[in-house]
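Materials and Methods. Structural model of F-box domain-containing protein. The 534-residue sequence of F-box domain-containing protein from Lentinus brumalis was retrieved and submitted for structure prediction as follows.
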Amino acid sequence: MTDLPSPVKAQPRLPIEVCERVIEAVYTDWYYSVSMSLATLSSCALVCRAWRPRAQRVLFDYVLLRDKDALYDFAELLDASPELGTYVHTLELRGYLHVPYSPVVLFLTALRGKLTNLAVLYIYGVHDAEKAVNPLPEGEKELPFLPIYRYFPSLLTSISHIRRLDFADVRFPSFGDFARFLNTLSNLKELYCYRISWAVLGLEPVCMAKRSSADSRKMFLPNLEILTCFDMDEQGRQRLLSALGPSLGELWINFPNNPPAEPIHRPRVEQESPSLALNLRSFPCLDRLVCFIAPIPQPDQMLESLRDMLVSWVPSSDDVFGDVSPSQRYLHLGPRSRRAFKREDYVALLRTIGPVVEAVLCRKETAESDLQDQTSGDTDDRAETDPCRSGLVVQDLGDRLEWEDWWRTAMADCFPTLSRWNRLYVYPTQIWNPEDLWEYHDLTPQDYADRLQAVADFAEARRRRHSTRDVVKKFIATRGVLMHVRQNRKRYQTYTKQELFITPGTHANRVQDPHPIGLDIQRPLAMSLLWSCS
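The predicted structure was written out as C-alpha cells:
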C-alpha cells in the first residue's frame, strides 16, 4: 500500500509583503480614477484572508460620499465595524451641497467621534458641467447657499485636528459664516479655496481681528502654511489674507482674479473699492508665490497691480522685514488654462510681464554699478554682484519633449536678466492636467514655425491688398472729381461763348484762349462790349 502524501501547508507564490505593496499601488487619489481604484480594492479584499486587512486599510483610506444616503450607510458600517473608522485619513463630500439634507451639514453628527485619524477634508460642490450631466431629481430644488445653522461651528471641534481643507464651488450664507468655519480648525496647515462665495459680505468678523502674536492660540489659523485662493471675491480674499499670521510660507493665486458672478450683498456703509494688488508685507516667511496667468483684459491696470504685489513681497534693501534669503525665494508663473492660449500668445503675454517682474526681482543699483564699471574699465578688479532677489520658475507648460528648446529660448528672451544669472527655471514638459492642451498642440516646432510664417505672409498679403484697394479707391474718387470739374469747365465755356456771340458783327476768333484763366479775363471784356453795343 503506497503511502498517502502528507498534507503540506500551501505557500504563496509571492511573499505577502510583495502582495501588500501591489495592493497599495492600486489606489490613486486622482478623482477621475477613484471609482475604478475602489472597485479593484474591493475585489482584492475578497481574494483571501491574507489580502483582506491590507485591502481594507487602503480601501478606507479615502472615503467618497456623494449624498445623505451614502453618508448614513457609511455611518452604519462604522457602527458595525468601528476599527474601519481608524483607517480613514481622507474624507471627500462631493455632490449637491446646497440642498436641505446637505452631507456637509449632516456628517458632523452622523460621524461624530468615529474618524479619529482624519487628516484631510474635501468639500466639493457640483459645477455647471456636472449639473448638466447629473441634474437633481424632479421636485427637488437647490438652495441659494449652504444650509448651515447657528451652532454648526461648534460641531467642527470634533474634526479640529485635520491638517488640510479643500473647498470648491461652495457658497456660504455670509462671509462671517465662512470665517467662523475656518476659525474652529486651528490646526490647519493647508487651505485650498476654489470658487468660494457668500450671499452677504457683512462686516469683518471678530474672529479675524488682528491680535498680538504672543499667544498663537488666539490668532486666526495660526499654523497655516499653504493657502490657495482662486476665483474668490476680491474684498473677501483681502480680508482673509490680512487676518493670517506670519506662518504662511506658500501662496497660490490666479492673475487676474476672476471673482464669482453671483451677486453679493454688501454693507450699507460705503467702502472704498478694494485694491487689485495683494499686500504681502505681513508674511516674512513667504518664500513661494505661485501665479497662474489668464488672458489679461486690461493690461495696464493688471500690470500695475502685479508690480505692487511683488514690491510688497520682495523686500528692498531698506526694509527690515523678510526672513527669507534670495536663494530661497521663488516666483512661479504658469498658464491658468493652456487651451485659452496659443503658444505665441502666451509668450507674448510673458514678454509684456517680463520687464515688470525683473524691475522688482532685480536690484537696480547693482545693474547701474555694473554698467559704470564696464564703462570705466574696472570690471577686472571688481566682481559682478548677483542682482536677483528671487528666482523665477516657469512651470506647467505641459508640452512635448521636442518643444523644450523652443520654450527655453522664448523664456530667456522674456526674462533676460534672470536668465543671465541662472535664476530662471523652465519646465516645458511639466503637466498637471493632461486634458488641458495648447491650441495646435500636435504640431512640431518646425510645423508650428511654418504655420506662423504662413499666417504672417497671409496677413502681409492682405495688408497689401487692402493698401492697393485704398489706392484704387482714392484714384477713382480723384478721377471722379476731375471729371466733374472738367464738365463744369466745358459747361462754363459754352455759356461764355454764347454770351460773346449774341451781338451781331462779333467774330469767333476774338476769344482764342480756352483755359480757365482766359475765361476769367474774357468774361468782363464780353460784358463791356455788350454794354457798349447797347
